[in-house]
Give the backbone structure.
Amino acid sequence: MSAIIELEAVRKTYETGIVRVDALRGVDAEIAEGEYVAVIGPSGSGKSTLMHILGCLDVPTSGSYHLAGQDVSAMTEAELAEVRNRRIGFVFQQFNLLASMPAWRNVELPLVYAGVSRPERRERALAALERVGLADRADHKPGELSGGQQQRVAVARALVTEPALLLADEPTGNLDSESTVDVLNLFDELSRLGRTIVLITHEHDVAARASRRLVVRDGNIMTAGAA
Amino acid sequence: MNWPETFRTGAEAVQAHRLRSILTMLGIIIGVSSVILTVGLGQGAQDEVKKQIDSLGSNLLVVSPGSTTSTSGVRGGFGSASTLTLADAQAIADRSVVPDVERVAPVTSSSVSLVNGTTNWTTTLVGSTADWLPVRSRTLESGRFFTRAEVASSAPVVVLGADTASELFTGSAVGQRVTVNGTSLTVIGVLATSGSSSSEASQDDTAVAPLGLANSVTGGTGVSVSSIYVEGAQEATLGAAYQEIQALLANLHGVTTADADFTITSQEALIDTANSTNRTLTVLLGGVAAISLLVGGIGVMNIMLVSVTERIREIGLRKALGATPRSIRRQFLVEASMLGFAGGLVGVVLSVIGARVLPPLIDQPVSLSLLAIAAALVTALALGIGFGVYPASRAARLTPIEALRSE
C-alpha cells in the first residue's frame, strides 16, 4: 500500500511576542492508504497542531509533508485551499454546519468551491447523505436534527468530494454515548470500504476502534503501533 | 466559487438577517432618496422659472433705465433714473435702424385706485401702446384691446387684468366704467389669466390703458417711460437686436456702451440669474444629502464588520472546505454591494413616490431626471463596494484555524 501521508521532521513553532512555543518537534510519520489511524494525546501535547498540519489548515515551520504524493509544506493559502477542497474531508467536534441551510446544501458546500454544476452537486450530496443513512433528512435544517444526525451530515459533507483523507477532530466530543457509537460504527464501515481515516481524540475507547494509534506527547510521536 | 454562486450566497446572507439588512440599507435609502428629491426640487424650480419667464413673452428684451455698473464700479440702482423716453421707444421701433425688432411697447406704470361706485381697488396702471398685448404674449378673456387710433387719441379706455376685473365687478366688466383719479374710463376688455403661478400674481392684477391717457391720469411727464419691452423678430437674432438697441440708445443718449444709463435684459439673462440662485441652493442641499448617503455607506461598513465577526466560524468552515481568500473576499464584497444597491433601489422607489406626493404639500414642483436616478443608483452601488472592501479583506485574511477556533 502506498503512503497517503508522509511527515518528515515536521516542526511547528509559534512565536507570540517573547514566548516561543515548540508545538511539534520533528515529527516523522507515515500513514498508508486505507489505514484507520487514531491520534491520541493529552491536551497541550501538540495533537491539535498536528491535526492542523495534516488538514492543510497550517503549514509546518520546517520539515516536509507529502499528501497523496504532493508536497504541501510550502504552498500558498490559495493552493492549500484547493488541496483541502479536493483531498481532505473534515469532521469537526462542533459539527460546523450552517444553520440556515438544509442538510443537503451543507453537504454540497465543498462541491460549490470545487466548481461542480448545481444538478450534479445535488445528486452527489443526496448520494452522500444516503451513504450515512440520512437520505430522508436531506431537507431538514441542522436545528431539526439530533446531535448524532448532525455529525452524520458532517461526515456526508466530508465524503462528498471523495477525498483521499477523512480527518476527524474529536468527532464524538459533543455526542452522547448512543450517538458516539452510531458515528464510530459509521467510521468502521467507511474504513472497511477502504477509506483512509485519521481520527484525533483523547478518549481511549474511541481510539480503540482504529487499526493503529499514534500517541503524541510534548510535540513528538511517542509510540506508533498496532492497537 | 463562480459569480452566480457568489450572488446566491450573498442574497441568502442578506435575507437571513432581514431586519438587520433593512436597517443597514436605511441610511442608503434615505441618502439616495434625499439626493434624488433635492436635485428634483432644484430642477423643478428651474423649470418653473423658465416657464414663468417664457410666459412673459418669448424672445423679449426689456430696456430699463439706470446703469448696471457706473464708471466708479458701483452698481447703480436698477431703474433708479428715469432716462428712458418715449422718443427712445420710437427710435427702437424704426425698422431701418433696428432691423431685428418686431414690436416695441414702451411702458409706464404707477399705482392707482380704481373706483366702481363704492368698490375701490388699488392696482398698477400700465400705460402702453397697442403692441403691449402681443409683446407681453397676453391674450384677452373678453372684449378687445385698445387700438393704435385710441392710443394716438389717448381715448379714455382701459383693459383690466382678470383678478382686477373680478375684484371690481361681479358680472362682465366689459362696457362698464371705472373712475381713476376723477377720470372715468370705459372697460373695453379683460385679460386672460397669464397662467403663471402665485408668485406672479401681479400679472393678473393690473389695468392697461393707452400711454397718453395713463400719463394724464397719473400726472406723468408724458416723456419718460419706466421701461421699454422689445420683441425680437426671431429668437435667433435676439442677440443682434440686443446690440442694435444698445448702440442706438447709447448714441441717442450720448454715452458709450461702457457707461450706459440704461440696461437691456434678455429673458435668458433673467433665467440665468434665477437659476444661479436655485443652483446654489440645490448644490447646498444636495451636498447635505450626499453626506447622508456617505454616512449610509459607513453604516454598511459597520454592519459588514459586525457580520464578519459574527460569522467568523462560517468563514473558517468555508475556508476549511476549500474557499480561497479570494472567494471569501468576493462573497463579502458582493453582500455589501447588494446592501448598497438594494438600498439604492428602495431609495429610488421612495423618491418616485415622494415626487408624486410632495409637490401639492410643499407647493413646489419636483421633476425627476433619469440621470439623477441612475447616478444615485451607481453611487449607492459604489458605496456598497467601497465600504465593503475593508470588511471583506478582513474576512479574507482570517486564517482558517483562528476562525474555526473562535467561539
About this structure: DSSP finds 13 helices and ten strands in chain B.
